[in-house]
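In response to reviewer comment 3 from the previous cycle, which asked for concrete evidence that the modeling workflow produces usable outputs, we include below a single protein chain processed end to end. The sequence was submitted unchanged, and the resulting structure tokens are shown without manual editing.
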Amino acid sequence: MKGLVLTAVKKMEIQDLPKPSVLPNEVLVQTKYAGICGTDHALYNGLPGSAKAVPPIVLGHENSGVVAAVGANVTNVKVGDRVTVDPNIYCGQCYYCRTGRPELCDHLSAVGVTRNGGLAEYFTAPASVVYELPDSISFKAGATIEPISCAVHGVQLLHLTPYAKALVIGDGFMGQLFVQILQAYGVHQVDFAGIIDDKLALNKKLFNVKNTYNTTRDTLPSDYDIVVEAVGKPETQEQAVNATRKGAQVLMFGVGHPDAHFQMNTYEIYQKQLTIQGSFINPHAFEDSIALLASGKVNVDPLISHELELNQVEPVLQGKVAGVSKAVVKVG
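The workflow returned the following structure tokens.
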């Protein structure tokens, strides 16, 4: 089979690989689509994602496909089923797994990060992380359920009320997902801030955004109950804290550089009684994410900007392709 292998930091090769065999509790998936995201950019450049990727490894942790084979103990899917895969695999035995916080697992492994993923014609995954994909969801959209689930997990960490006024900072793919998901969870007003006018206008037109702000020229109001930071840069993290009213919640979702820091006024945190919440990966969020996509409450089709072949992936990860909002790879 063909696979795109990360052979070293900043180096990928299309190789002929052996088709993997399944263990008793595993599923063999014939990949249809694999998504490319910021984590893949980090792994390509030698930075950690949810875990460290050690070359040689096949990336691709956002996947959809068809079940090609199942292990002897698998009962939740069968050959021929359309599926999507939660890449994150928890040990079930560490302190965090045993206290209901598996996303913090000390022994986290992940399809497309620590084991071969969807940038190959076939990959395997434990049956416990393989989910049937409804016929109403295309394979292309199905490859976005993993990022949807990460946003859903972040939203589920917040205390949401219909009266809340929310601001999403960051007009990348994840920020645009948060716009829709916050509304799906009942927030009555969602505003949107970013740096690309076309994306701001698209979300105002299609997704019921009330106010938009271009942060290169606009000053953000400071009257939000909920602020989602979906960029991961110190300047936008500071903007997120400054955009709050008293009693607000700030979700720090954007993945910053491991060495980056931002400044906060500690008295303001105290005086406003702010909650600053981190969010890591996506535990127990796939079923909700599939339902949001199947119901139409989340629509990813207008947000997918590029459909790639395997040989077009590396230039995207190198930053040589302009205007990428969300890229997916047609593998099968």
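Residues 158-278 form a domain with the Rossmann fold fold (CATH 3.40.50.720). We consider this sufficient to address the reviewer's concern, and the full set will be provided in the supplementary archive.
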